[in-house]
Design a protein that fits this description.
CATH superfamily of one domain: TolB, C-terminal domain
Number of strands: 63
GO cellular component, one term: plasma membrane
CATH architecture of one domain: 6 Propeller
CATH topology of one domain: Neuraminidase
Helix content: under 10%
Keywords: Disulfide bond, EGF-like domain, Glycoprotein, Repeat, Signal
Protein name: EGF-like domain-containing protein
Structural class: mainly beta
Low-confidence stretches: none
Mean pLDDT: 80
Strand content: 35-45%
GO molecular function: Wnt receptor activity; Wnt-protein binding
InterPro entries: 6-blade_b-propeller_TolB-like, Cueball_EGF_LRP_Nidogen, EGF, Growth_fac_rcpt_cys_sf, LDLR_classB_rpt, NELL2-like_EGF
CATH class of one domain: Mainly Beta
Shape: globular
Radius of gyration: 31 Å
Largest sheet: 4 strands, antiparallel
Number of helices: 2
Strand order of the largest sheet: 40-39-38-61
């Protein structure tokens, strides 16, 4: 189905389809904004007390000369008050206007410089796209009305928008009609495949398509053309217009032969044309055969169409658990990993045959033997400041911590837990036109991860905003929620466009879809690496719910499905074992005890809460309708609004706490990747080794015994 954004745009915005780009929400002519919130461009002449007009970095103040209140940019910003930009970010200095824009001075706004699209283009100056007009081919930019199609006109050799049958208009605006187009016998408005039929009484002419053709009489197509009968071409063919026959016909793609309705592989076609190699193979030129062939990559064997991974025994690669040995197995006639005495397992993940309650010596000297309710047993836990599985503990890396990172508009910003006038925080980074909806941190390596739903990308950077890099792109639809399992070294995300929950390694490799059924509008997601659980919200307006499953996707169940409005994002309080969420429909923040499943409301009412995080006894949250971060004691009270640092603009999205150390949590994947070759996913009582998607038989989860 064609991708659209009609349901997400603001009241005074429209969904614009750009060539070779995802659809974007753009404010309608006469309005300015980000496409989500649009206000009238001419409102700078009105009294700002009447309307909420001012930019987030402006104030509504009295102007004695005009005898009305106007928007004035705050110190450090330039603009007309409706739109304010930081002086240091002026395009005069940064030269950051779009390719089809110029940096110009507004003499009426304190000589502020701003980006303005060139004639013939519209946009915010940073992204400018060609104006929608009937002279531009709709095959280049999909600007037809929703009740129109982009059609090729053989008479003039151009593509243009045509209203569907039963509607009239120019293709950009279509309204109901009788479906009749007036004509005279002397006019040539009717199609060559139509005729002007004149009523003998009224002498009024109407264009009608001839027998065997469909249309309004002005445009007529054969009723068997492939552009009329959708999906009539072979999957290896395209529907193209033929100037010779003046009709649309199915034509086989390069490398295939047939009539277009049925296409067979050409015997001489190679992988260079067919692109039919296995994911673990490369299409390369064979000097012996003198043609391109599929060749399995290093470490794989096969014919290139099907490649299997070469199995390397543990005597060649050291992949056994530290509590295992690589020994020769006569039954398997090969070397296999085997747990040493006192430990049990598959050799890749070994656990003590006795608990630490019976023998505390099995714990590392920097670990304690503690009872875990969810596991109903005693386990070894690394002490604060150390990481590992309890049997092996190493010193945890220290990072600058105890502060907040949040996203606003297109930016990531930092804020102290107790902001002051001297230190309100600072801007970390900005990526033009991104919408950073999901946010989480890898507390082990000191990295922040975020998802951009506008472009379908997941990024990461250092805590200070440096070394920003792309982690995943090309396979994402709309990644709204994001969570980091810092113990297993995996990243999880929800995709509201694909209605899936997916996982990969922290570097974006080994991608796998683990849940793809029963999701409507998945948004927030959090993980508990210690219990091996993940929790996510589904804000379907008809059936909102919060669900839970193991981190491998098994054991899925509904946790909350009553008394919910629009559950946005989630947060886990590891100290109290609480799961909390923001509900924008019921305007409140609520928690559930993961032991007893008892629910309680933390705060109400709120305007439109989006995300939340915990630090000690305080809870912090963001709100789409409030230009502050809210802070409140988790026991209740009046929220304390925290003023935002300079550098951001627009809606507040996600927020996360930056700790000095990771929480004291371990699982079966924390050492040696749990013995798994690819993905190691905790399942509550142990771990599941999984292969990435589209890998088939080439992935061996474990070396067989």
């Amino acid at each position: 189905a064609e991708e659209t954004c009609d349901q997400t745009c603001g009241t005074n915005a429209q969904c614009v389809h750009l060539e070779q780009r995802r659809p974007e929400c753009k404010c309608k002519p006469g309005f300015i904004g980000d496409g989500q919130v649009c206000r009238r461009a001419e409102s700078e002449t009105e009294d700002c007390r009447t309307y909420n007009l001012c930019d987030i970095n402006a104030e509504c103040l009295a102007n004695p000369s005009t005898q009305r209140h106007q928007c004035f940019c705050r110190a450090g910003y330039k603009g007309n008050g409706i739109l304010c930009i930081e002086e240091s970010e002026s395009c005069e200095l940064l030269n950051n206007c779009g390719a089809n824009a110029e940096c110009i001075s507004d003499e009426g706004s304190n000589n502020a410089y701003y980006c303005s699209c060139n004639p013939g283009f519209v946009g915010d100056g940073y992204t400018c796209y060609a104006e929608l007009n009937p002279n531009q081919g709709c095959h280049q930019i999909n600007n037809c009305h929703s009740n129109a199609k982009c059609m090729y006109e053989p008479r003039n050799g151009l593509y243009s928008c045509r209203c569907n049958e039963g509607l009239i208009g120019d293709g950009y605006q279509c309204t109901r009609s009788s479906g009749e187009v007036s004509c005279t016998l002397q006019s040539n408005v009717c199609s060559p495949n139509g005729e002007c039929v004149v009523d003998s009484v009224s002498q009024n002419g109407i264009c009608k398509c001839r027998s065997g053709f469909l249309g309004d009489g002005v445009i007529c197509y054969r009723n068997d053309d492939c552009n009329i009968q959708q999906d009539s071409c072979d999957r290896n063919a395209r529907c193209l217009h033929s100037s010779a026959s003046n009709r649309y016909e199915c034509r086989c793609n390069e490398g295939y032969n047939g009539d277009g309705k049925q296409c067979l592989v050409n015997a001489d076609a190679t992988c260079e044309v067919l692109h039919n190699c296995h994911p673990n193979a490369t299409c390369a030129y064979d000097l012996n055969l003198l043609k391109y062939t599929c060749q399995c990559n290093t470490g794989f064997k096969g014919d290139g169409k099907n490649c299997k991974q070469l199995i390397l025994s543990c005597n060649l690669i050291n992949n056994c658990d530290v509590k295992a040995e690589c020994t020769y197995n006569f039954d398997a006639q090969g070397y296999r990993c085997q747990c040493i005495n006192g430990f049990i397992g598959d050799g890749f993940a070994c656990r003590p045959s006795r608990t630490c309650r019976e023998d505390q010596s099995i714990c590392d000297r920097n670990a304690d033997c503690v009872y875990v309710d969810q596991m109903l047993t005693h386990v070894c836990h690394c002490r604060y400041g150390f990481v590992g599985d309890g049997f092996q503990c190493s010193l945890a890396p220290r990072h600058d911590g105890d502060y907040l990172i949040f996203t606003q508009g297109m930016s990531l910003l930092r804020m102290p837990l107790q902001p002051t006038k001297e230190d309100k925080g600072k801007l970390l980074l900005t990526k033009p036109h991104q919408i950073p909806a999901g946010l989480d941190v890898d507390c082990l390596d000191g990295l922040v991860y975020w998802s951009d739903v506008a472009h379908g990308v997941i990024y990461r950077a250092n805590y200070n905003g440096s070394s920003s890099q792309t982690v995943i792109e090309g396979i994402l639809g709309s990644p709204e929620g994001l969570a980091i399992d810092w113990v297993s070294r995996n990243i999880y995300w929800t995709d509201s466009l694909k209605d899936t929950i997916e996982v990969s390694k922290l570097d974006g490799k080994m991608h796998k879809t683990i849940i793809n059924e029963g999701l409507n509008d998945p948004r927030g997601i959090v993980v508990h690496p210690g219990s091996g659980k993940m929790y996510w919200s589904d804000w379907s307006r008809t059936a909102p719910k919060i669900e839970v499953s193991n981190l491998d996707g098994t054991g899925r169940t509904v946790l909350v499905n009553s008394d919910l409005g629009l559950p946005n994002n989630l947060a886990i309080d590891y100290d109290r074992n609480d799961l909390c969420w923001t509900d924008a429909g019921l305007h409140r923040i609520e928690c559930i005890d993961l032991y007893s499943n008892s629910r309680r409301i933390i705060h109400t009412p709120t305007a439109y809460p989006f995300d939340l995080t915990f630090v000690g006894n305080n809870i912090y949250w963001t709100d789409w309708e409030i230009k502050f971060i809210q802070r409140m004691d988790r026991k209740g009270g009046t929220p304390d609004p925290l003023e935002l640092p300079l550098g951001g603009n627009g809606r507040l999205y996600s927020i996360v706490t930056i700790p000095r150390h990771c929480p004291r949590i371990s699982n079966a994947c924390s050492v040696n990747n749990g013995g798994c070759r690819h993905l190691c996913l905790p399942n509550g009582r142990g771990r599941t080794c999984m292969c990435p998607d589209n890998d088939g038989d080439s992935c061996n989860e474990l070396i067989p015994k």
